[in-house]
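Lab meeting, item 3. Inverse folding demo.
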C-alpha cells in the first residue's frame, strides 16, 4: 500500500515536470510537480472511468495527460 502511494507521487512528480516542458510553462518546478501529482490523480480517475490503464508506461502517460490538463486549467483560470 505504501509503495503504491510513493510510486503514485513519484509518477505525478515526473508527470508534472514533463507537462511543464510540454506546455512550455515558465512556472516554478515545485508548482509543476505539485500540479503533476494532482494531474496524476485526475488522469487516473478519468482513465478508470474510461477503463484504460495498467502498466507503468501507460500510467505515466495518463499522469502526463492529466498533469497537462491541470496545468492548462491552472494557467487559464487561476494564474493571472
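The presenter then showed the designed sequence:
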Amino acid at each position: 500500500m505504501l509503495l503504491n502511494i510513493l510510486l503514485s507521487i513519484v509518477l505525478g512528480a515526473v508527470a508534472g515536470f514533463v507537462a511543464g516542458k510540454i506546455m512550455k510553462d515558465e512556472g516554478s518546478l515545485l508548482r509543476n510537480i505539485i500540479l503533476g501529482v494532482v494531474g496524476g490523480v485526475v488522469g487516473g480517475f478519468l482513465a478508470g472511468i474510461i477503463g484504460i490503464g495498467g502498466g507503468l508506461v501507460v500510467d505515466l502517460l495518463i499522469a502526463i495527460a492529466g498533469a497537462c490538463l491541470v496545468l492548462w486549467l491552472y494557467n487559464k483560470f487561476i494564474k493571472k
